[in-house]
Amino acid sequence: MTRRRLPLGHLPTPLHQPSRLAHAMGLDLWLKRDDMTGGAEAGNKIRKLEFLLADALESGCDSVITCGGIQSNHARATALLAASLGLRALLFLRTTGKDLNPARAPLVGNVLLDKLAGAEIRLITPAEYRERTRVMATAADELRRAGMRPYVIPEGGSNGLGSLGYVEAMAEVRKQLDLGLAGGKPFDLVVHACGSGGTAAGVALGATRFEVAPEVRAMAVCDDAQTFEQTIERIIEEARSIDGRLKES
Ligand SMILES: *Cc1c(COP(=O)(O)O)cnc(C)c1O
Fold this sequence. Notes:
Helices cover 44% and strands 14% of the residues. By secondary structure, the chain is an alpha/beta fold.
């Protein structure tokens, strides 16, 4: 395991005050514009992929395997960044449709971008998706038998290594506060959307370590709070075992 980081994102992203919204809400509201981390590959996933794809290259891998919903932002970011690094991408995308032939998947949104990037798409059912760890391990075996060296990235890039991207994002906010941005003092609260838990784990670790905010609220966009609490706790433990600086926070 390595902590090398590829400079893939356009960083630092702006810390922006939407003044009319802040006024309407009666809050000193600031936005970390992580929608601006890049072009078509932009979004929050790129920060996790800076660590994960560095590890893939360092391990001598020539291909990546990952998964997500049919219009997964994570799968799209992985497909585009893998192509730019010369890695082949295999994406397992969950569909509720009956037709599992990827050639007939509607060419819209992220699926269109996945295909433009040259990624191989395999459609799987929600039942198969629940077994995604096994499905991806089997595919990795298949690629190894064909002489390739695959690297498996979990859903959302959310493991301990990926979450370091959001520890670093909090270090980035700390530098912005030190420059006097957003009043130069810590926030009361960081709020973010939570889909696979890696962002939540990294923000929680980084917000404490870099004194960005004493409280983090992860808003679950799928699954229930209890499932996420377990997932986030596991990712935090993994991150701590990789990065000794995160031990006592
Ligand atoms: C993936 C994603 C999230 C959630 O991040 P996780 O680390 O998967 O919890 C939030 N917002 C957007 C736009 C995303 O694509």
